[in-house]
Amino acid sequence: MIQFVVSILLFFVIFFGLAFILNMLLRQTWLMTFVYPFIILMIVDDIATTEYFVNPGSAFSTAFTRLTEITIADISILGAGFIGTIVSGFVVRYLRKSGYRMF
Asked: What are the entry keywords (predicted)?
């Protein structure tokens, strides 16, 4: 149970930080929110990225099969990361609105 809570917190903080840094550097507030599903696909699918280009039919079918097999615990941990990217976007918008210039 403790590992589950720590995992949720860790994914939230990691993806909040990554999204915040990307927002500062690229000035694209919601970029990480749109990229996050692809990152999740790379985490869950356990397939080499080149396999999507070499053998796309079986790679995508395997990836979507593995996506449907994840548990509620995995969904909540990955969802915490997605919420972290969304919160980061709102924080950056608030800071810019408040007059802070970031790079």
From this structure: Membrane, Transmembrane, Transmembrane helix
